[in-house]
Design a protein that fits this description.
single chain; 2 helices; 6 strands; globular
């Protein structure tokens, strides 16, 4: 299976971050019950638990700005893709952005993709 993984990663990240910034409670269709999110030190599994975690974050407004986006096929034949993102977050009315890194492992599912693994870390350097 031949996948344009770089284009897929860009399209996915554009959609994901636009939706996250507009209404993160609506991201549930991107996850499955087998999906896992690691947000800083907290791990949750399953789409409902992931959306509950994302929706419970203590900010009202957020804007993601992608600095780098790298993608690679995750296995030779299955079409899954690993995506590594670095960027900045503008949270609520803060003037100084916070740096972050995020990794997505995307698996194919009926002509689309879902997030199997999602690892997010703020960068404190």
């Amino acid at each position: 299976m031949s996948v344009d993984f770089q284009n897929l990663a860009k399209q996915f990240c554009d959609f994901y971050y636009n939706q996250f910034d507009a209404d993160r409670s609506q991201l549930g269709n991107l996850y499955r019950e087998s999906s896992m999110l690691t947000f800083e030190q907290t791990q949750v599994q399953g789409s409902a638990a992931i959306i509950e975690k994302l929706a419970s974050m203590p900010f009202q407004k957020v804007a993601h700005r992608i600095s780098t986006l790298d993608a690679q096929p995750a296995s030779p034949n299955s079409g899954d893709v690993i995506v590594m993102v670095t960027g900045e977050l503008l949270i609520d009315d803060e003037q100084r952005p916070q740096r972050y890194s995020q990794v997505f492992h995307l698996l194919p599912d009926n002509g689309s993709y879902y997030v199997f693994n999602d690892i997010f870390r703020l960068v404190y350097a």
